[in-house]
Amino acid sequence: MASREDFGSWLGGSPSGDVGGRDERLGLPASGRGSFAPVSRRLGALVVDWLLSMLVGYLLFDGAPMATLGIFAVENLVLVSTAGATVGHRLFGLRVRTEGREALMMGFLRGAIRTVLLVLVVPAAIWDADGRGMHDKAARTIIVRS
């Protein structure tokens, strides 16, 4: 029978018996390249990506709100799935990588899961004890410094 250590809580950062900090639990360095991205950089990247989507939506679709959301979704899906970062991520020195010690490329499926939950807003606004949004937990991704 599976225990909590096998699965953990979806919103809990780690099983209760886990020792060490977030970086150790996630297999990340404590600082520098590859370390967990601070909230300020993540929010800055989000703002840049949204403003860029608004600009493109305004130029191509007369600023239709759903067009902006669609452009934002396509940007996230394509760029995160293939390059590991959106325009905003690049400007703020961030990248999206998979969980675990190996820094694998995202792939389309993880990118799609992450994007769908991101554009729904609420899953991205609910964070676990480690500071990761539900969209990153579900896609098993982490935003780190590049």
Automatic annotation (TrEMBL):
Keywords, comma-separated and alphabetical: Membrane, Transmembrane, Transmembrane helix
Membrane-spanning ranges: 43-61, 67-87, 108-127
Taxonomic superkingdom: Bacteria
Any one of the GO CC terms: plasma membrane
Family matches, as InterPro entries: Pra-immunoreactive (IPR051791), UCP021697 (IPR016795)
Region (Disordered) residue spans: 1-24
Biased amino acid composition, Gly residues: 10-19
Extent of the signal sequence: none
Keyword presence, Plastid: no
Protein name as catalogued: RDD family protein
